[in-house]
Predict the 3D structure of the following.
Amino acid sequence: MKNDGASIVAAARALEGEIALTLSSLVRIRTPSCGEGEGIGYVAARMREIGFDEVRVDAMGNLIGRIGEGPVSIAFDAHIDVVDVTDAPAWLHPPFAGEVAEGEVFGRGACDQKGAIAGLLAAARIMKSLDCLGGCAVHVVITVQEEDCEGLCWFHLIEEEGLKPDAVVLTEPSGLLIARGQKGKVQMVVETKGRASHGSAPELGMNAIYAMAPIVSGVERLNASLRPSPPLSKGSVTVSRIESRAPSLCSVAEECRIHLDRRLTRGETGETALEEIRAIAAPRGGRVYVPRYERASWRGLVRGRELCYPSWLMPEDSPLVEAARAAHRDLFGRAGETLIWDFSTNGTATAGIHAIPTIGVGPGDPRGAHIRDEHISLDQCVAAAALYAALPAHFAEGARR
């Protein structure tokens, strides 16, 4: 059995060409939220070709591949859906061409998160060829609808499919650092009502936009007053969209609506965040609520959920964090450093609600997601493949102690 770090690194480097081809192919397949079917089919075919022991697609459309058996199980999560492209003519590299140049792969989803999927498939090939699982059952879970509603896929996997591993490794971009937590998030809507009148006689109406204006100012002041809760940085709140309705452009607005993005640090919850906004909005007659997500998956399943996501945090000395550090040390000669994600992930379900030990390790710069000319380094994808191949045995060894 060859499970030493040097053998795993060498095997990962030998697969760089395959990783590049897989990632380029994935980028060329458009996989918006609720439209991931073709991409899921491509990855499922690759899993079967590699020799996964089990490959299946659940009722929601998530793909679950398993390698190995054992008393300890670990799941690697990678969402395949990507955000939209609204500025394609401005991209230097076409967003869905999957161009490979100077050690980088370009295109929408390359960093978030198809580079990780390519790394996971290469890691699976290494696990099979080197027999380096250490008695661990490994699930590679390619999830859907994450960009729309983080964690929704895992609520289904855990509560309906019965998949509850001993640990979850998220493969969101982390620059290969070990993410041991994240901020939470709650999305809110504030509505004000007015009374329409002709624009030439605004005194006869009641302008809903004017009622909203001091609420917007109050939200801005609230953001400035928020404080950190180490090790998580401070929460935040911002107005992300504003809409109004009037009978015509010659009328006083009878309705106004704003959408808020509220990031939650430790000690903050969806309910405390709602109360803060209600205190601002109520004096102006504003109604505040958390909207629900109700879109059908690519397989037609509708699983609704309020857009509220808790924060979560793993201790520095947790067995899963220690296993990731040990894998880093074995492969690269130094223990992995940790970070806390500012953005929300599927960990909101696995760790935040279901209390499954969860970390994140992914190739790519976290700031490289959702940007124009999104790209990722092949070197990072290769290193990620080595980490994913080495981590299960380290976690299983720690679990047996």
Q: What stands out?
A: The radius of gyration is 23 Å. The longest strand covers residues 184-193.
